[in-house]
Design brief:
Blueprint lengths: L1 H19 L12 E6 L5 H16 L3 E6 L4 H14 L3 E4 L8 H9 L4 E4 L12 E5 L1 H16 L2 E8 L4 H17 L6 E9 L4 H14 L3 E6 L2 H13 L7 E3 L5 H8 L6 E3 L2 H16 L7 E4 L2 E3 L1 H6 L5
Parallel strand pairs: 1-2, 1-3, 3-4, 4-5, 5-11, 6-7, 6-8, 8-9
Antiparallel strand pairs: 10-12
Helix pairs in contact: 2-10, 3-4, 5-6, 7-8
Length: 318
């Protein structure tokens, strides 16, 4: 009986030792957190990017904090400071201003937090970005010019509703202008870009910009609007001026409201972007970075041209 008790006691002692020592579980590692600041959440394009990043990050075990600069670079800089205080693992920015965001990115660099940009690149010197994931905006601008040549039959005056504060639009405008310059070398093509005016990438401001253009250029034949809110604002201005049938609009994005307008013939065409892909590939780049894999400095996603023929077949519009 004494032997049995001694044996039980020994087993209990081993269990106690193993429970306090070798069998102790390692504490769970905290989830990595990604701080995201987009240009604006009033534009569905950036909401899709944010939602896509959140969904993809969950697959990798990351949490996402989404904020919005709402076109205010000072507000966005403060959001970056807050991410640094929170000690997030990575930061993703769609800069409100491609140059002025530089100091905020440098602060993140100094804190040892990797920074990625989505859709809009940083143009500030000495600001380190691991990878930029975006639409091929330059190629999309060239597609927009091809659509405009087709819409006008190769002749007419064109204006651009611009937003030159951000790198993505700089590239779109550059692609549009360079493709148009090449088109004008072909026989029978004579399209003149008469003016570029800022529209802020927003519908209300672009409406007012379009009104100014229509007043200054009564023979205007086309408007290239650098995103869909700008295109929809321009369309509203044309309708108010009773000139909806006189001026062709080419937009950029592929948002649902613009697709419907294309189907109705109110906008001629859009180079289509894929914001869900931008969000997904941004998170993939972050995951690669943390796995120690090589991350390309730039990932570009091509656009496709979407006109009335594509709208007629689009199941989203049925």
């Amino acid at each position: 009986m004494r032997r049995a008790c001694a044996w039980v006691g020994a087993v209990g002692l081993v269990a106690l030792v193993s429970g306090c020592g070798g069998g102790k579980e390692e504490p769970a590692k905290p989830k990595r957190t990604i701080g995201v600041s987009v240009l604006t959440l009033t534009n569905p394009f950036f909401k899709v990017i944010a939602d896509s990043m959140t969904q993809e990050a969950a697959k990798h075990g990351y949490e996402v904090i989404v904020t919005s600069g709402e076109f205010d670079v000072a507000k966005q800089q403060n959001q970056v400071k807050d991410f640094i205080v929170k000690k997030v693992s990575a930061i993703v920015l769609c800069p409100c201003d491609s140059k002025s965001i530089g100091p905020a990115i440098r602060e993140a660099n100094e804190a040892g937090i990797p920074v990625f940009t989505a859709d809009i690149a940083c143009l500030a010197k000495d600001a380190k970005v691991v990878s930029h994931i975006a639409t091929d905006n330059y190629g999309g601008g060239r597609l927009a010019a091809k659509a405009m040549v087709e819409a006008l039959g190769g002749k007419g005056k064109v204006a651009i509703i611009d937003h030159p504060e951000v790198e993505s639009v700089i590239l779109r405008t550059k692609g549009f202008e360079e493709e148009m310059a090449e088109a004008n070398k072909r026989p029978g093509v004579d399209i003149k870009i008469v003016r570029k005016l800022p529209g802020g990438g927003a519908r209300d401001r672009s409406l007012r910009t379009a009104q100014d253009l229509l007043e200054k250029y009564p023979d205007l034949a086309g408007i290239f609007a650098i995103n869909d809110p700008s295109a929809l604002g321009a369309r509203a201005a044309l309708e108010q001026a009773k000139r909806a049938d006189e001026v062709k609009i080419v937009g950029f994005d592929g948002q649902l409201e613009a697709k419907k307008a294309i189907k109705r013939g109110e906008i001629y065409a859009d180079p289509i972007q894929y914001p869900d892909e931008i969000g997904r590939k941004t998170v993939e780049a972050i995951a690669k970075y943390f796995r120690g894999e090589e991350v390309p400095p730039q990932v570009l996603i091509p656009t496709t041209l979407y006109g009335k023929a594509e709208a007629e077949k689009d199941p989203e519009l049925k």
